[in-house]
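W.,

You were right to be curious about this one. When I first looked at the sequence I had no strong expectations either way, so I just let the prediction run and decided to look at it fresh. Below is the sequence, 533 residues in total, followed by the output.
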Amino acid sequence: MHRLAVRRLSVNAFPKRPGANFIPLTPLAFIDRARHVFADGPAVVDGDRTRTWAELYDRCARLGDALRKQGCGRGDVVQCMLDNTAEMVEAQQGVAMSGATLGSVNTRLDAATVAYVLEHSDARLFIADERYEATCREALATLENPPPLVVVGGRADGYEALVASGDAAAPWTPPEDEWDALALNYTSGTTGRPKGVVVHHRGAYVQALSNAIDFGGLPADGGTRYLWTLPMFHCNGWGFPSTLAAVGGTNVCLRDVTVDGIAHAFAEQGVTHLCGAPIVVNLAIQAMERAAPGRRIRMMTAGAAPAAATLRRAAAAGLDVTHVYGMTETFGPAAVCEKRSTWPASDIPAKTARQGVAHAAGGRLDVVDPDTGAPVPRDGQTMGEVVFGGNVVMKGYLKDEAATAAAFKLGALASGDLAVKDEDGYVAIRDRSKDLIISGGENVSSLSVEAALMEHDAVALCAVVARPDEKWGETPCAFVETTEDVDAAELLAFAKARLPKFAAPKTVVFGELPRTSTGKIQKFVLRERAREL
């Protein structure tokens, strides 16, 4: 017994030797490799611009050096407000090469929220597309210490001048600690102010590899041509900029996501893969029917689960849809509805609409009792809260220790989603404990919509829930009690003037709200009513 114990100790007695048997994980390793292995392969196609992996690396390295010359480094945040363009691909790598942390601002935000993000993150520099310049300048005008604005495009392209000021040969240093902050992404969550989610290099590295596995194994050396229908400001494009670097794939940029744009890319660019919210699935189906008959294209979708009818239509059109699930706090998707060959064909649409199992390299996905943290049984009936653990979980919320502690209260990341575990271990969400609405892939806080409507003098009380929508997945539906006559059109216009376009309610229903004996609004009753509309 003594000799056995010594042997067990000896295999764990070796020291860690940095550089020899340990290197901090970082997604920058993928582009550093791609510039050699896939040097002449197409890395980015953006309109009439095509860049190889060697050229993309050169521009990313120049951007990193230019940012260092601007004083940006470890601990600093560089915010970007960009569409799915070549410049956004460069920012995903180049900002990290400077040592700084990348912030990706949602291009649909209003000036007040943009200002909050810039101020809260202590942004050192702000890079924005010319089409958002007016909003950006309005936001900057409200700040006491605004960061410098670098505009992409236009007559005086400040971004090109910035990149030109950098030296591609200047050395850049990977993070000494894989726990260093790679990106800062803001999520609206379910309360008024957005929270800043800090994610790390290790998680982004693992996420990139999980993407390749969960997409059925992405072909290397140009075999993967990925269409950017998913906004790159969403969780750094779910990590796909690094995934494509790992396999030498091609970033096919698409600034405006339309059926025509997708169809053109399918026909002209040989697209093999894409991602997006359920609304994009519908657009992709139409594009497949128009421009890619007889082909097979793979797609990931997240957010509200796609309807079974949509999945059937997608399969008929040649679109192979994989349903994934996650949060900004999990680098994007951290669960996948892994398809099984043993599923009966008639059951596939319903089974693939579930949230599924943990990513191959992600870590833990479970459903637990929200009070004790104990896992619920696999009976498809017992409700619990979905939790995540492992490599693809955030560091925490920037400047918000209370929210960070609450998120990890169960010893794992609490999602706020209520779900069951089926007998096969797959997770299926039944409700959202925080009343979050996902419309067109965007998180909509029902509380924020309610607050906006309550500003109207005629509104005495309101409650907002999700209404199923074939196009958007879900849309906000407002149930309203009034003190005086007001029509739905007036209230909808009132809300649209105070909310981002995607967050404004699409439906108003007048009448007394259902309450419990203690006066609490019964939202589950309203959800049923919304489904029946």
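Here's what jumped out at me. Residues 467 and 533 are 8 Å apart (CA to CA). And, maybe more interesting for your project: The mean pLDDT is 91.

Coffee later to discuss?

I.
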